[in-house]
Amino acid sequence: MHPAIEQQLIATRRAFLGRGVVGVGGAALASLIARDAKAENGAPAIPSLPHFPAKAKRVIYLLQNGAPSHIDLFDYKPTLSKWHGQQIPEEIQGGKRLSTMTQGQKERPVLAPITKFSQHGESGAWVSNFTPRIASIADQLCFVKSMHTEQVNHAPAITFFMTGDERPGRPSMGAWLTYGLGSDTDEIPGFVVMTSRDKEASCGQIFYDYYWGNGFLPSKFQGVKFRSAGDPVLYLSNPKGMSHQMRRGLLDSVAKLNEIKLAEFGDDEIATRIAQYEMAYRMQTSVPELADLSSEPEHILKMYGPDVERRGSFAYNCLMARRLAERGVRFVQLMHAGWDQHRNLNTQLKIQCEDTDAPSAALVWDLQQRGLLEDTLVIWGGEFGRTPFLQGTITDTKQWGRDHHPYAFTIWMAGGGIKPGFSYGASDEFGHNVVQDPVHVHDFQATIMHLLGIDHEQLTYKFQGRRFRLTDIHGKVVDQILA
After folding, report:
1. Is the Cβ–Cβ distance between 276 and 218 less than 8 Å?
2. What is each CA distance from 416 to 92, 101, 137, 304, in whole angstroms?
3. What is the pLDDT of residue 40?
4. pLDDT confidence bin for 20, thresholds 50/70/90
5. Which burial class, exposed, middle or buried, applies to 357 when counting CB atoms under 10 A from its CB (0-12, 13-18, 19+)?
6. Given this model, what pLDDT does residue 34 score?
7. What beta strand segments (E) does 310-375 contain?
8. What per-residue confidence (pLDDT) applies to 16?
9. Cα distance between residue 172 and residue 317, in whole Å
10. Residue 138 domain-assigned (yes or no)
11. In angstroms, rounded to a whole number, what is the distance separating the alpha carbons of residues 16 and 358?
12. Which strand (E) or helix (H) includes residue 347?
């Protein structure tokens, strides 16, 4: 056979098989697109979800990058004051792995809390005097004082909390939840991220995109980051000379081209592109209205603190989180850096608390008075805690600090089916090791999913021949903290 004729036949066979494969997968792809459409209109993205009645509909995660010092804020340990300046007992520290900043430090003197503690509410919760507003809502909070993790450095520790693995590449918690449950709005993305940092820029925490990434899930489930300057989302405004009607016509034409490619190749990322273009168009109207705070009463603005109208501040982001919750956003992830106090604990911890205390408490109270706290889960905490012993020397008071500490730390939660006015778990008298009811990161993740009606062992996604889940192969629900 002539080579040219043979090549023509091969090309024809390839075209036939290629189109055949698309045809075979057409029904499945149509089902996928229909499922995504349902998710945007408020129905579950996966029809079998929720697995059981949910107590929470949405999550607002106030992630405090850099790791707040649990023993200076929420885990009161009088023993630290008694042992101040003395070497921490070897049986307590026990040669455990530390960061390189203190691993080789010969002396590890105990450092007393740098502020006073007092009890609050009917629950009698011990809370630092640096956080009076959080203390005022103590009876709404559940303190988990027995958190622990394996990671001793920031990026892998945050990645572990948000994705279930310390290595980048897995889907984030918000991506899993929007993949499984969809969103209650089609005007705003179901997973929104906002970042802020201390005004002094005291530490170099980096906000990596994979903290809110989609990993191997379709890219429509990644978090959408709202910026602190200019348009909240890039390209939200029409270019000069382009009207809203022109933009609509352009999108319609692009959609037709994408639909041709979708029919030809069956790539679900093309379906994602079509959906995201449409979402961006709807956001041209919804986002400016969302960001307009002129309708907020003066007493509400005052409650969030003096920074509330400064875009990019933690206070502004907390108020925006409440407005997003009102509009049906499934997962709001606020990340605030500045807690990495290795050499400036005496000065920076108080400043950090002044920036975050009022907005955090205001968010909880604001949700409650609007009837939203009951089905909104609010989480406040860092990626690990801080050491009960000093990083540095006891005589150099200006540079007192604490190193990273994964072996025991505290987070608090509110609303969304969590038991209020309750403390769970305990660390030892130095706040160094968990001694009662340990809660691992995977347990924490399993509990969050349970509150949203998801069996964490059942929500999986097959990738590279294995079924993955947020909690990997671990995790158990902490039933004791459920209301």
Report:
1. no
2. 36, 39, 16, 21
3. 43
4. very low
5. buried
6. 42
7. 331-337
8. 43
9. 20
10. yes
11. 64
12. helix 345-369
Q: Cis link prior to 189 (omega < 30° from 0)?
A: no
Report CA 46 to chain centroid distance, whole Å. 22
Q: Is residue 196 part of a domain?
A: yes
Residue 282 lies in a domain: no
Q: Which residues does 255 contact at the CB level (< 8 Å), separation at least 6?
A: 274, 277, 278
Q: What is the CATH number of the domain that holds 83?
A: 3.40.720.10
Burial label for 397, CB within 10 Å (0-12, 13-18, 19+), is exposed
pTM for the predicted model, two decimal places: 0.87
- Residue whose pair of structure tokens reads 């038991």 in the numeric block: 419
Q: What is the largest CA-CA distance in the chain?
A: 95
* Residues near 409 by beta carbon (within 8 Å), at least 6 away in sequence: 67, 70, 75, 147, 148, 381, 382, 384, 385, 386
Greater confidence (201 vs 335) lies with 335
Does residue 168 sit within a domain?
yes
The pLDDT value given to residue 54: 97
Average pLDDT, the chain: 88
Q: How many independent structural domains does the chain possess?
A: 1
Cα–Cα distance measured from residue 109 to residue 430, given in angstroms and rounded to the nearest whole number: 12
Residue written as tokens 């995504």? Answer: 36
Q: Is 233 left (phi over 0), alpha (psi -120 to 50) or beta?
A: beta
Q: Give the pLDDT score at 44.
A: 59
Return d(Cα 226, Cα 218) in angstroms, integer. 20
Within its chain, how far is the Cα of 262 from the centroid?
A: 33
Percentage of the chain with pLDDT > 70? 89
Q: Is 351 exposed, middle or buried (0-12, 13-18, 19+ CB in 10 A)?
A: middle
* Residue ranges making up the domain that contains 395: 46-236+297-481
Query: What are the phi and psi torsion angles at 212 (to 5°)?
Result: -130, 25
* Helix, strand or coil, per DSSP, at residue 245: helix
